[in-house]
Amino acid sequence: MVKAIATPNIALVKYWGKKDGQNMLPMNNSISLTLDEQLKCIADAEFADEKDEFVVNGKPANADAYRVLEYVRKTFDTKKYFKIISDTYFPVAGGLASSAAGFAAIAFSIAKLLGEEEGIELTITEISRIARMGSGSACRSVLGGAVEWLAGNSDETSYAVQLVPFEEIGLVDVIGILSHEEKKISSRAGMQQTVKTSKLYLERMKTVGKRLDIVRKALKEGDYETVLIEAMKDSDNMHACMMDTKPPLSYLNEKSLETIKRVNMLNEREGRIVCGYTFDAGPNAHIITESKNAAEAEKLFAGIADEIIVSEIGKGPRKIL
Ligand code: DP6
Fold first, then answer.
1. Averaged over 33-54, what is the pLDDT?
2. Residues whose CB falls within 8 Å of the CB of residue 257, separated by 6 or more in sequence, listed in order
3. Whose alpha carbon is nearest atom 5 of ligand 1?
4. CA 119 to centroid of ligand 1, rounded, Å
């Protein structure tokens, strides 16, 4: 048996839309920061006798999860069945997406099992592709630090690469839990609807390449003001595309909007960009800031967050057994 741990990631330039749902190919590259082990998923992988067995958080897994195992057999030429048990250990009850950490841990544990017991050694690129088949954003969680998912145009060419190792990044993600509710419309269904119906999304596709270039360069150079400015613009742009979807998708709540206001006020008061907000498909706020400003960022959540997690940049998955 192999046990592996993986953590979520927060996108600075978002993935919101696929060009190929079957192969899980995104419309554009995306860039994220991997988070630390306060938020984690642990997956156990072993071989099974006659059929796959898959349990996620104590419940039978869904079709996406089984599809990952089919993909592994087909792609890496093995006939083995798997028994996978995956659990999420987040300090909060719901409200934070766990699929990225979950599928990264699953992909990593399967890869180590195949390596140790079958001599099938997979590269990190191949592990990223396995994670991608479970959930797109999971392919970025197989690496630590700042990571870019290269959209590619086929299964073989769509995977994540590391831009900057974790120890060279002086940022933290101050996460404010503003709601414990599960989202009503999944990212998968929501993004499909945006691609199909939003005119604004066409504009996004014209400008996202330029933003990726700016953020990639700024992360490598440690130009965090630029990173934060572009992360806020990209979050705003994705949420505008969500609102432009028919019927409109709105994932933010009053407290999310209050957070945006407070971040802007702080930055204005300081006369520079101290903090940058970003939101995924949910109301919980991620305030990205330099480590030395973490306490200042925490204060912005006064009276609105049920819980605050200050996450450093994570190292990526590792085998724990
Ligand atoms: C808003 O990766 O959860 O968090 O690929 O359909 O499983 P599927 O979607 P998922 O979408 C994540 C969307 C996002 C932005 C991001 O993480 O880049």
1. 97
2. none
3. 136
4. 32
